[in-house]
Amino acid sequence: MNQDILNQMKRYMNGVREADAEMMRPSFHSEATMYGFDEAENLVAEGSIDHLFTGIEQMSPIPNMVTEATILAETSNTASVKIELISESDGIHWTDFMNVIKIGDEWKIVSKIYHSK
């Protein structure tokens, strides 16, 4: 298991938990994209990762959020990671799939697709 990839995912998960977009921003490539489905609103979201940062900035911290990252597949320079973010007391269950690429010595998220219950 690649600890460098997991460290980037941890930065992202901590940014969600703390509602801190600037904490998670370095995990993403500047041109990253995001697509997802919000089950409660039957809504498909799409576009720039900046939409994520805007949404995170409008949230309150979720200190009791439980998170888990699992590397599903990995090559020497690419990987796919599944992330679960759950807060039962807040009614949150988000599943993210991140595609990451190694640029130089650093892993960056280039795309996020999510499902929100």
Structure, described:
The chain is about 25% helix and about 50% strand. The protein has 3 helices and 6 strands, in the order ααββαββββ. The chain has helices spanning about 5-20, 20-25, 50-60; strands at about 30-40, 45-50, 65-75, 80-85, 90-105, 105-115. It has a 6-stranded mixed sheet, with helices on one face. The chain has a single domain (about 5-115), classed as Nuclear Transport Factor 2, Chain: A (Roll), CATH 3.10.450. The protein has about 120 residues and is an alpha+beta fold.
Properties at a glance:
117 residues; alpha+beta; Nuclear Transport Factor 2, Chain: A; six-stranded mixed sheet; 3 helices; 6 strands; FrzH/put_lumazine-bd; Nuclear transport factor 2 family protein; NTF2-like_dom_sf
Could you outline the blueprint of secondary structure elements for this entry?
Elements: H1 3-18, H2 21-24, E1 28-38, E2 43-48, H3 50-58, E3 66-74, E4 78-87, E5 92-103, E6 106-116
Parallel strand pairs: 1-6
Antiparallel strand pairs: 1-2, 3-4, 4-5, 5-6
Structure class: alpha+beta
Which CATH class is shown?
Alpha Beta
Report how far the terminal alpha carbons are from each other. 29 Å
Query: Topology as H/E string?
Result: HHEEHEEEE
Which CATH-level-2 architecture? Answer: Roll
Largest beta sheet, briefly?
6 strands, mixed
| Total beta strand runs | 6
From the spread of the alpha carbons, the general shape counts as globular
Low-confidence stretches: none
Strand arrangement, largest sheet?
2-1-6-5-4-3
Stated plainly, the CATH topology is called: Nuclear Transport Factor 2, Chain: A
Mean pLDDT: 95
Number of helices: 3
Computed Rg: 13 Å
Any idea how many domains?
Answer: 1
Helix proportion range:
10-25%
- The proportion of residues in beta strands is over 45%
Pfam families: Lumazine_bd_2
InterPro entries: FrzH/put_lumazine-bd, NTF2-like_dom_sf
Protein name: Nuclear transport factor 2 family protein
Organism: Streptococcus himalayensis
